[in-house]
C-alpha cells in the first residue's frame, strides 16, 4: 500500500497556515496567512514540472519549497532582508511539521497489520521522516521522489518505486486523495484507492470532491480503507 502524503495523509494547508501565521505575528507582518499558504502551494506543481520536463536536473522538494517561499514573499511584497537565512529555513521546515488527518494514524495501523505501507510522495526523505516522527505515522519504509529521482505523475516514479520493493505494479495499491495521481498509477498497472479529502484546499475546494475513475477502493477516510482492504485481502 503506497500513499500520497500531502493532502491524503496530512493536512498540509492547516499546518502551513498555522506556521505562516506564527511567523507573520513574530515579525509584525500584516498579511493574510491563508492567502500566503495557498500562493506558496500553488507554486508546487509548476516547480516540479520544470524537472519532469527535463528543463532542470532533479532537486529535492525542500529546495523547491524554499525557492517557492522566496517567490511567495516577493509576490506578497514582503522584504526578505528583514529575515535571516535561518529564519527562512525554519519556516520552510513547516512542511516537515504537518499534522495528520484525524483518521490517518489509526487507519495506517490497521493497514500495516496486513500490508507493507509506505509513502509514495513527492516529499524528500528527511521531510517524510521528520513528518512521520512528529505525526506518529507508522511507515514500514520511506519511499518517494528522492528515492527514484522523479516526481509524480511521471510513470517511472511509480514503476521504480515498485521495483525498489521487488514488486510488480499489480502487487501494489496506490492510495491518494487526487484522481490524477490514481490515474497515473493505474496506467502502469497499480491498483488504486481513493480517499475523499474535501477540505484539503479549504472551504472553496472544487476538485477531487469525488472519485472520477474506476478505482478499486473508494473511501471516506483511511480507517474505512483499512477495514475494506483487510476484508478483501
UniProtKB/TrEMBL annotation:
Catalyses which reaction(s): an (S)-2-haloacid + H2O = a (2R)-2-hydroxycarboxylate + a halide anion + H(+)
Pfam families reported for this sequence: Hydrolase
Source lineage: Bacteria, Pseudomonadati, Pseudomonadota, Alphaproteobacteria, Sphingomonadales
NCBIfam families: HAD-SF-IA-v2, HAD_type_II
Keyword rRNA-binding: no
PANTHER family: HALOACID DEHALOGENASE, TYPE II (AFU_ORTHOLOGUE AFUA_2G07750)-RELATED, HYDROLASE, HALOACID DELAHOGENASE-RELATED
Functional description taken from the UniProt entry: Catalyzes the hydrolytic dehalogenation of small (S)-2-haloalkanoic acids to yield the corresponding (R)-2-hydroxyalkanoic acids.
UniProt GO MF annotations: (S)-2-haloacid dehalogenase activity
Gene3D superfamilies per the UniProt record, alphabetical: HAD superfamily/HAD-like (3.40.50.1000), Putative phosphatase, domain 2 (1.10.150.240)
Organism of this sequence: Tardibacter chloracetimidivorans
The keyword Hydrolase appears for this protein: yes
Name this polypeptide is given: (S)-2-haloacid dehalogenase
EC number: 3.8.1.2
Family (UniProt): Belongs to the HAD-like hydrolase superfamily. S-2-haloalkanoic acid dehalogenase family.
Keywords: Hydrolase
Amino acid at each position: 500500500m503506497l500513499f500520497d502524503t500531502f493532502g491524503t495523509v496530512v493536512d498540509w494547508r492547516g499546518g502551513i497556515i498555522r506556521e505562516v501565521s506564527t511567523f507573520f505575528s513574530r515579525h509584525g507582518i500584516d498579511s493574510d496567512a491563508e492567502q500566503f499558504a495557498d500562493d506558496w502551494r500553488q507554486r508546487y506543481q509548476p516547480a516540479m514540472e520544470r524537472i519532469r520536463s527535463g528543463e532542470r536536473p532533479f532537486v529535492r522538494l525542500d529546495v523547491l519549497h524554499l525557492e517557492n517561499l522566496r517567490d511567495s514573499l516577493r509576490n506578497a511584497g514582503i522584504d526578505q532582508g528583514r529575515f535571516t537565512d535561518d529564519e527562512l529555513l525554519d519556516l520552510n521546515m513547516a512542511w516537515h511539521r504537518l499534522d495528520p488527518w484525524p483518521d490517518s494514524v489509526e487507519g495506517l495501523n490497521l493497514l500495516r497489520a496486513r500490508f507493507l505501507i509506505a509513502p509514495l510522495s513527492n516529499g524528500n526523505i528527511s521531510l517524510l521522516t521528520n513528518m512521520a516522527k512528529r505525526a506518529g505515522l507508522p511507515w514500514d519504509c520511506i519511499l518517494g521522489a528522492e528515492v527514484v529521482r522523479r516526481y509524480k505523475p511521471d510513470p517511472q516514479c511509480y514503476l521504480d518505486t515498485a521495483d525498489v520493493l521487488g514488486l510488480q505494479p499489480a502487487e501494489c495499491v496506490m492510495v491518494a486523495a487526487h484522481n490524477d495521481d490514481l490515474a497515473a498509477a493505474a496506467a502502469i498497472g497499480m491498483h488504486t484507492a481513493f480517499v475523499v479529502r474535501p477540505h484539503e484546499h479549504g472551504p472553496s475546494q472544487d476538485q477531487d470532491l469525488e472519485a472520477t475513475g474506476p478505482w478499486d477502493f473508494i473511501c471516506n477516510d483511511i480507517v474505512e480503507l483499512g477495514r475494506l482492504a483487510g476484508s478483501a485481502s
